[in-house]
Amino acid sequence: MKLLAITLALSTTLAAGSALAGDALVQFNGAIGVDPVAGIANGAPVANTVLGVPPGGRPWILRKLRASIDPDGSISAKGSGLLFSGGDSIGTRGGVTQVFATLFCSGVAHHSPFVDLDLAGNFLIKGKLGAVPPSPCLSPVLLIRNAAGAQSWFAAGIPGGDD
Prior knowledge:
Blueprint: H1 2-21, E1 26-33, E2 37-41, E3 44-47, E4 60-69, E5 74-84, E6 98-105, E7 108-111, E8 115-116, E9 123-128, E10 141-146, E11 153-159
Antiparallel strand pairs: 1-4, 1-11, 2-3, 4-5, 5-9, 6-7, 6-8, 6-10, 10-11
């Protein structure tokens, strides 16, 4: 009976350790759409540049975002409703057909593969970042970006898991 109890305790401990080994490096739940103007200085608009990445040219919204990045650089991100929130193209994705994610850890960029953006503004990113991010990832920032042109940002993830 003692052997069975010890075996069960050991199995539970090993299972818990395995679960912790698979924990995400960083998670994001929710999003903030870009407002391309951060403010006004000396009577002129100031671009809402984040970590050297210029903003999309018009306001955007990302209705839903859930993203998880594992310590090995695997990324899984699902976004819904990445659409213009102003101008004549409001409520559409305009001419944007592909996006990608950039994870910044301490200001250093790690990029996901490009993925298609459907007409409703939905996307699914699965794959590996171009380089393995550091662990821990300090000051994490996740930007959803245009795969074309200046690769401006449209939305930022809100750090945190299930709340």
